[in-house]
Amino acid sequence: MKNTLSRGLTNLLPMVLSLWLFWSLFISLDGLGHFLLDIVELDNAFVGTGFILVAVLVFISGLLFSFSPFAWLYSWLEQQLMKFPLFKSVYGSIRDIAGLMKSDGKPKNQKTVLIKQANGGYVVGFIMNQTAPKPLTDALPDGDWVPVLFQLSYQMAGVTSLVKREDLIEVDWSFEDAMRFNLTAGISAKSITATNAKKPIKDSAKDTLVDSEPEAKNSDNKH
Prior knowledge:
- By secondary structure, this protein is α+β, with helices and mostly antiparallel strands.
- It has 2 domains: 98 residues, no CATH class; 96 residues, no CATH class.
- 57% of the residues lie in helices and 13% in strands.
- The protein is built from 8 helices and 5 strands.
- Strand 3 and strand 4 form a beta hairpin.
- The radius of gyration is 26 Å and the shape is flat.
């Protein structure tokens, strides 16, 4: 019975939580739309009218941003509001997160890499940008430094570290699968069956074995 309950929970919980989150988002946007309709004193024809209104407004705003005068006006307003420190911090963070969803067909900067640790192990990281901020590179020793994110398991938080590009091992692994691997501490079945790392790790392992064999032979000769 325990296994049956566990099997049901494992299969239903992701679906139920996902549907609940999307439904909550739908209700929130629908309520915002209803609020806008109440302002102009229009009747709500059916459930979802507010959501459709918000979607139409977002689409129209996307069209407006394609025109230079509107984009310039919005940019000017943004610069004025960014003069307030608290607004700058909050708005800047939200804008950066929203910018991750905008690809425009360009290749993403995020790449999956491995970084060797002092104990010989490797940590999965993500190159979030190809260049580090100038104030940091000016303070660091000479080298090609890049910001690398180390994601913490079961948390959305992570640690950003500056690592020399020559110390990174690029991995032929999608950002989404590698992020899932880190977030679930390797439990995710899809991340385990994803593409394996490139050859540098295997080569380095072989080099270690090759280097260790002569030492073993020398120690046998001494005996």
